[in-house]
Amino acid sequence: MLVTMATAALFAPVVAPYDPEWQERGDRLVPPFSFSDETGRFYLLGTDPLGRDILSRVIYGARISLIIGFSSVAISAPIGVLLGLLSGYTNRWVDDVIMRIADIQLALPFILLPMVIVSVLGATMRNLILVLAIAGWVVYARVVRGQVIRLRQVEYIQSSKAVGCSGSRILFRHLLPNVLTPVIVLVTLGLAQMILLESSLSFLGLGIQPPTPTWGGMLNESRNYIAQSWWASVMPGIAIMMTVLSVNFLGDWLRDILDPKEQTN
């Protein structure tokens, strides 16, 4: 499912049957699997309140969600891992500073910080990616810190110190490879979380602005028509659910593959 969604997003101009921003007022709220009496077009998933093809908008909306999700995780994961390594291995005051910043951020509602920053800086794709990256680094830092605190007392780390290895060599040559397994699983779960958060911001009007199609924006535009035209809200909702579900399944599979305890069982 994830590969299919990513492939459709990548080749959206070829896969999408119609222009996602083209409005055909005579085709407003056409049900799924129907031909239009006005234009003769076939709408597989129906049309929205402005007569736009929902399938085309779902495909193009996948571009926004996947680009923002992958980009924000690609920024937040390295930052969180680096800060977690430093927090777990270096001086106590460094650990205190990093963890107190993390505690302050965790004390805030997760969606509140992105909402405030996007409201101030503007809802551009660059700002959304940076905001979500800032919101997501804490989880990686705390998990990596816990792993490093556990590993720094084992024999091979103590032996590396005894033979004079530098701190950077110990961090990146010995500790980093041994903390990557939980990080890889966290990346998949973080991707699902970022897709949901981007959809939430778009639903609230703080994401990519219309007429650019986004899944959350499609839910927002059709929420007043859900009683009589359910497909306009259900179809983008299914796209969000299936994408997040497939990412979570991928994370579970990676955990089973990469965890030695699971392999022995």
Percentage of residues assigned to helices: over 70%
Indicate the CATH architecture.
Orthogonal Bundle
Q: Strands of the biggest beta sheet: in what spatial order?
A: 1-2
Let me know the average pLDDT.
87
- The strand count comes to 2
* Amino- and carboxy-terminal Cα gap: 28 Å
CATH superfamily: MetI-like
Strand content: under 5%
CATH class: Mainly Alpha
What class, by secondary structure content?
Answer: mainly alpha
What does this structure look like?
The protein is mainly α and about 260 residues long. The chain has a single domain, classed as MetI-like (MetI-like fold). It has eleven helices and two strands; from the N terminus they run H-H-E-E-H-H-H-H-H-H-H-H-H. It has a two-stranded antiparallel sheet. Strand 1 (about 35) and strand 2 form a beta hairpin. Helix 6 runs antiparallel to helix 8 (about 165-205) and helix 8 (about 165-205) runs parallel beside helix 9.
